[in-house]
Write a structure and sequence with these properties.
alpha/beta, globular, about 325 residues, 4-stranded antiparallel sheet, 11 helices, binds magnesium ion, binds adenosine-5'-diphosphate
Length: about 325
Amino acid sequence: MALVSVSGLTRIFDVSKPWLNRVVEQRKKAFLTAVSDVSFEIEERSVYALVGESGSGKSTIGKMLVGLLGPSEGAVEIRGVDLAREQDRAKVDAVRADIQMIFQDPFASLNPRWRVRDIIAEPVAARGGDTTGLSERLLEQVGLSARDAGKFPHEFSGGQRQRICIARALASEPRLIVCDEPTSALDVSVQAQVLNLMSDLKDQLGLTYLFISHDLTVVQHMADRVGVLYLGRLVEEATPEDLFDDPKHPYTQMLLAAAPKLDEFGRDVPPPTGEIPDPINPPSGCAYHPRCPLATDVCKTTRPPMRMLRGAKVACHLAQ
Ligand code: ADP
Ligand code: MG
C-alpha cells in the first residue's frame, strides 16, 4: 500500500463579499476552485514532486495532506487513515505524529525570541518527550554546529535558517515531510546545498517527501514522480526522465520550452506565455484550452480524463 493516497481531492473556497455588500450590489456568492479532482499516490521512501505556476493549487494540496485544511470533496489517506473523516482520535493522532511540513520562508517560521535549542526541541517538548541533547544532535545532522543551539534565528543566514527548520521538522522523527517551496526564497548557490541535504536525509532516515515547487529544474534530480498542476488540476504525471525527454501535455511542453537551459540550475524561470485564467470562472472543458496551440472543439466542451500513455499519465484529448 502507498504511504499517501490522494483521490478525487477538491477544495473550493467561498470568496464572496460580505452579505450586506452582496445585497446592496446584487451580487451572487462567489466560489474559487483551488484544487479540482486531483488523484495521486506516494510510495513510502519516495519523493513525489508537485509543480505548477503560482496559484495552481500546490500549497492547498500540501495543507490538505497534513490536515491543516479539509477537502471539499475527495480524500487524503495516509496509511489508510482519512485524516478528515476518521472518527478514532488515536488513529488520527498517530498518523499526524508521522507528518511534518517545511515552508518557503525560513524566517517567518522561526520564533525570533527563542533560542535555536528551544525552537528545534519544541515539537518533542510539547508532547512531553526527552529533549536532552536533541537539538545539538539534530544541528549536526543538518550540517550546523552543536554550539549554534544557544543562538537566536537572526544570527543565521537564510540557508542556515532553513537548515534549522529542517532540524525542527526532524525532531519528532516523522515518516512524511511536506516541503512547500523549501528553497525558493534562497540564493541560487544555497538552494543546491539545501536540496542535497534534504536528499541525503531522505536516504539516511528513510523519509518520504511531497516536494512542492514552481520550478521543474529544482525537482528533476530528487523526484521519483512528478505531478504537473494547472489551475488546480493534475494534467500530467511521470518520472522526471519521461517528463523532460517526452513531455506529453501541451502545458508541460510549454513549461519546458520556457525553461530552455535545464542544466542551468536555479536560474530565474521565465514565466510561460499567456494568462492564467481566473479560478473563479475557470474555462469549460480542458482548463488549458484557451492557451493551448492544439485545442479543438472537444477541448472546449469536455474535461479530458487522466489516461495512461507510454508509462506516464496525461489528461489531454490530443496527446499521442
Ligand atoms: P500555489 O501554492 O500553487 O501558488 P495556492 O494553493 O496557494 O497555489 O492557491 C491556489 C488558488 O487558491 C489561488 O487562486 C489562491 O488565490 C486560492 N486560495 C488559496 N487559499 C485561499 C483561501 N484561504 N481563500 C481563498 N482563496 C484561496
Ligand atoms: Mg504556494
